[in-house]
Design goal:
This protein is an alpha/beta fold. The protein is about 30% helix and about 20% strand. Helix 4 runs antiparallel to helix 5 and helix 6 packs across helix 7. Bound molecules: zinc ion (ZN).
């Protein structure tokens, strides 16, 4: 009986992570991500799932980012009935991010209908808040390093250091007499993060899937707080507003951490920091619950005044009206708002309002996928289209590479160096073609492994 691996997404691109593992007559879906980016990516989310979802035995998740989990409610809508396994911290984050993702889908459809800019009439949400609630009921929490036995496979979640709860999946397949090990790296974190612990290397794999988001580059050595300090200097001097596109869970806490450090050291004065998102809640309590995942002091986290994941003047804005009032607010101030890749959400309204004014600044702290407005802005676009309107870009644009949650090329190679023997097959995934290509070349040169970068739709017999 063969074991097959199908690449249903995040192959030749960074979003839509979905890999199907078929062992005898059992089917496991590893990650269930949304495609994100421009129209050509978003449209992929509307296609029928390539196999009937009711035939999937279980979904196994690496971490709570939308490009790894955001398709789950849609899968449910097409007949999937669970279960879904994820680490306990991922489960806790999903309770925040899935309803928020549904809310964004509903908001975008509503707004498109109101303004009449959608190609589809009426514009529909990909899924609703009710679908997200149903999806949450299917999730079963698992602990790191505790093997989970399912039909034909035993799965162990190992720490990947990328965000709270993020994991590398170590899947042992029993098929006929022998066993084989398939390792899914998931997104790999950084070795020197002040907040997160480093990724844990694995020693053994027959088949390996490794991410390559930054497979073609090294993160700048420039300290995070230097770039952040410069962006703050700009708006403090001009009286402008610093916009930081960031997902409300994960990246936002890292940004708050470094802002707080700058304020504590006296490098910048206290100023109002708005975390503007429908899910804008203080998630530092989740960091308290999962203390083994990060480097922060739990006692400090629990202290209202000393919590390192909050600045002294941090305001969480949930309400839409309150969010709109931010448009007319004078600087200096910082607004952190989703989505992090500038492809929807409240950040769009803030950009429409703030980009035309050169007193303002925009700071990118995460990966900007191809086709997103974030990528256009990073590449120096002089104007961008937001909600059907042309918006001139005069605000100053900064980028903090070092705030990335992803390992860079050398960090990926360092993680790969943990394997004690070459995997029989290595697949480079989760990267744009240029990054995947570069990482393949480095793997061949450094380790001499058999490596390839599959395309979406490819199916490989792996045993
Ligand atoms: Zn991720």
């Amino acid at each position: 009986m063969s074991t097959r691996l199908s690449f249903l997404g995040a192959a030749g691109t960074v979003t839509g992570s979905r890999f199907l593992l078929e062992v005898k007559d059992h089917r496991y879906l590893i990650d269930c991500g949304l495609f994100q980016g421009g129209r050509s990516e978003k449209v992929l989310n509307w296609e029928a799932f390539p196999i009937p979802p009711e035939r999937i035995d279980a979904v196994l998740l690496t971490h709570a980012h939308i490009d790894h989990v955001g398709y789950l409610p849609r899968l449910l809508r097409q007949g999937f009935r669970g279960p879904v396994y994820a680490t306990d911290a991922t489960q806790a984050l999903l309770e925040i991010v899935l309803p928020d993702s549904a809310h964004l889908q509903e908001q975008d459809a509503l707004y498109a209908n109101k303004k009449g800019y959608s190609r589809h009439k009426p514009a529909l949400p990909l899924y609703t808040a009710a679908d997200a609630e149903e999806a949450l009921k299917l999730i079963r929490g698992v602990s790191f390093d505790s093997p989970l036995k399912l039909d034909g496979v035993t799965i162990t979640w190992r720490p990947a250091g990328h965000i709270l709860g993020s994991a590398t999946l170590d899947v042992e397949i029993t098929n006929g007499g022998g066993t084989r090990r398939v390792v899914f790296s998931g997104d790999l974190g950084r070795y020197e993060s002040e907040v997160m612990r480093p990724p844990v290397s694995l020693a053994d794999a027959d088949v390996l899937l490794v991410e390559s988001t930054y497979g073609d580059r090294l993160h700048s050595e420039e300290p995070i707080q230097k770039v952040l300090g410069e962006a703050l200097d700009h708006i403090i001097k001009s009286g402008g507003v610093l916009l930081i596109p960031a997902f409300a869970v994960g990246r936002t806490q890292e940004v708050l951490y470094h802002l707080r450090q700058l304020q504590e050291s006296g490098r910048v004065p206290d100023l109002p920091i708005f975390v503007d998102s429908p899910m804008a809640v203080d998630v530092s309590h989740i960091y308290c619950r999962f203390g083994n995942d990060h480097n922060l002091d739990i006692n400090l986290l629990m202290d209202q005044n000393e919590c390192p994941l909050r600045c002294r003047d941090t305001r969480f804005v949930r309400d839409v009206e309150e969010s709109k009032q931010l448009n007319t607010r004078a600087g200096p101030a910082v607004i952190i708002s989703a989505s992090g890749m500038v492809n929807g959400g409240r950040i769009m309204h803030h950009l429409k309002w703030r980009l035309p004014d050169k007193r303002n600044a925009l700071l990118f702290v995460g990966y900007q996928a191809e086709g997103t407005k974030g990528r256009l802005l990073l590449e120096g676009a002089e104007r961008i289209r937001i909600h059907g309107e042309e918006v001139p870009v005069r605000a100053h644009i900064f980028q903090a590479h070092a705030l990335s949650a992803h390992a860079d090329r050398d960090e990926i190679l360092r993680w790969l160096g943990g394997f004690s023997r070459p995997p029989r097959r290595t697949f480079v995934v989760h990267g744009e073609p240029k990054s995947s290509q570069a990482l393949q070349e480095h793997i061949r040169k450094r380790f001499g492994w058999e490596v390839s970068a599959p395309r979406t739709g490819e199916v490989h017999e792996i045993v």
